[in-house]
Write a structure and sequence with these properties.
The complex is a heterodimer of chains A (274) and B (251). With 274 residues, chain A is mostly helical. Chain A has helices at residues 2-9, 15-40, 44-64, 68-89, 94-114, 120-127, 135-154, 156-164, 166-171, 176-215, 221-246, 250-273. The longest helix of chain A has 40 residues, at 176-215. Chain A is globular. Classes of the chains: A mainly alpha (274), B alpha/beta (251).
């Protein structure tokens, strides 16, 4: 028993592993909670787009010596507002418009990046750099997680209602569009912190996979959010350990752990239904 | 203190006014297709049950959506109890065709019905004891007590329609707009809906129901409004209603 305990806690004797653990638990749980809306409102594609469009924000911030997280946040919020605006004004289908914009933004980010001397930071942004999280970034992540949680709690009943019956919401005077834009902005905040853990390319996995797994075992949105947060945080912990002991990429290990949990739940469901 | 969803929540109705007054209303979806709705005069008195009949595309749904404040209109005036549309959200309940709701969403029947109370709760307020009691009573009245804790996805078509009606009842609305409530429901549900509409009428509430089902229309309604190609072609008391006119409107 004590050997197992040693195996579990030994990696966290290092400061960088402690930071990584706190950051990944916090972010995976937040992603799991807001991810429930991503799954139920079919926003997975938008989540992915928000992650990708953060790239030019990060690069521009880097070139000017601004805060990288600040650059990513600015780009994410602008994208969220842009998507909300486009959904109302454009005759294009929303997913088409998003597809055009986000690939262009991502390409712009890569283009700007290629003009820099060093490509070293690119892989951190693309694939995450959880082991390099600094203490001051932890504070920012905590703040983001708190803001997201508080807003989701305060507007829970309206966000829930607009997710399945926008018509009734409109009839009683709730402006579904504004709530949706608010949700997209929260999503942008969450995604930017998610980039730190698993990178631009894999962030949507943290949003979608735990929530998808949770949706298979609960019948209530609030419970789904809790279960999803637990699956996300648990996978983050296990993924971090695996990456430490087997020297593999942390972000990928966390995502694949989520996927494994999802697979097990699908399997159990399948067996129970036979 | 209640933070209403809409600032114009507490507008009192004009005493003695009709439930619905429409003058020269025009709704156009697509200019090349002509008017979706073109209604010169329509008055629906308070406290009656009105049926909206007519073939598909006659404008029944459009009219209900306009009254619910969901459909912007291009010209004319629409008053609900003497006030503009959307001036009094709590007073109007709209029951969409069932397909407009995401029934796979993870929410229990009880909580679904509770969303009818939200207009009275406003932002940042959770349901109170009165809301719980009202929802519980209504669930039982509509025969949904046994499925109250099930997901809405588990409901049959008739149960879904009853859940929608339950939500409108807990809203304590004065004007109920029902879009095709008899579509694909079992006979018991149909009977129950009509009984409830009858009870609501005795409380002075008004119901406007779009329907294709004309079999018992003279017993189930007081006023029959016949629409065709977006226009009101006839409007008369149910007991005077002739089957021939009905058939004509379906030609």
């Amino acid at each position: 028993m004590s050997e197992l305990w040693q195996w579990l806690i030994a990696p966290f004797a290092y400061q960088f592993m402690q930071n990584a653990l706190i950051a990944s638990l916090l972010i995976a749980a937040t992603c799991g909670i807001i991810g429930s809306y991503v799954v139920l409102r079919r926003l997975a594609f938008i989540g992915d787009a928000l992650a990708h469009t953060a790239l030019p924000g990060v690069v521009i911030a880097y070139m000017n010596g601004w805060s990288l997280v600040g650059g990513a946040l600015a780009a994410g919020v602008m994208t969220a507002l842009g998507i909300g605006w486009m959904a109302r004004k454009s005759t294009l289908r929303e997913d088409t418009a998003i597809g055009v914009i986000f690939t262009a933004m991502f390409a712009l980010g890569i283009l700007l990046m290629s003009r820099l001397q060093s490509f070293r930071d690119l892989s951190h942004i693309l694939f995450g750099n959880i082991l390099g999280v600094q203490s001051q970034e932890l504070w920012l992540m905590t703040a983001v997680a708190l803001v997201v949680l508080v807003v989701l709690v305060l507007f829970h009943k309206e966000l829930e209602l607009t997710s399945f019956d926008g018509t009734h919401a409109e009839v009683i005077g709730i402006q579904s569009n504004r709530l949706r834009t608010m949700l997209l902005i929260l999503l942008a905040f969450t995604v930017v912190t998610g980039i730190q853990v698993v990178g631009v390319v894999l962030t949507s996995a943290l949003l979608v996979t735990p929530a998808a797994a949770a949706s298979l075992i609960t019948s209530d949105l609030r419970r789904m959010m809790v279960v999803s947060a637990l699956i996300g945080a648990g996978s983050a912990f296990v993924g971090l350990l695996l990456s430490y002991y087997f020297a593999v990429a942390t972000g990928a290990a966390i995502v694949l752990t989520c996927t494994a949990v999802f697979g097990v739940i699908v399997l159990i469901n399948w067996i129970r239904q036979r | 203190m209640i933070l209403h969803y809409s600032g114009r929540h507490h507008v009192d109705s004009v005493p003695g006014s009709d439930a619905v007054t429409i003058r020269n209303l025009r709704v156009v979806y697509d200019a090349s297709q002509g008017d979706a709705l073109n209604c010169t005069t329509l008055d629906i008195p308070a406290g009656i049950r009105a049926a909206l009949i007519g073939p598909n595309g006659a404008g029944k749904s459009t009219l209900l959506k306009t009254l619910a404040g969901l459909q912007p209109y291009n010209a004319g005036t629409v008053s609900i109890y003497g006030r503009p549309v959307r001036a009094c959200h709590h007073r109007v309940a709209y029951l969409p065709q069932r397909g407009e709701i995401d029934w796979r969403f993870p929410i229990t029947v009880r909580r679904f019905v509770m969303t009818g109370r939200y207009v009275h709760l406003g932002w940042f307020t959770n349901p109170q004891r009165y809301d719980d009691t009202l929802v519980e009573q209504t669930l039982h009245r509509l025969g949904l007590g046994a499925v109250a804790d099930r997901r809405i996805s588990d409901l049959s078509g008739g149960q879904q329609q009853r859940a929608l009606l339950a939500r409108a009842i807990v809203q304590e609305a004065e004007l109920l707009l029902l879009d095709e409530p008899f579509n694909n429901v079992d006979p018991e549900t149909r009977l129950l809906i009509c009984t409830i509409l009858d009870e609501l009428q005795q409380l002075g509430r008004t119901a406007i129901v779009a329907t294709h089902d004309l079999s018992r229309i003279r017993q189930e309604f007081d006023l029959i409004i016949s629409l065709r190609a977006g226009a009101v072609v006839s409007q008369q008391a149910a007991e005077l209603y002739q089957q021939a006119v009905v058939e004509e409107s379906y030609e």
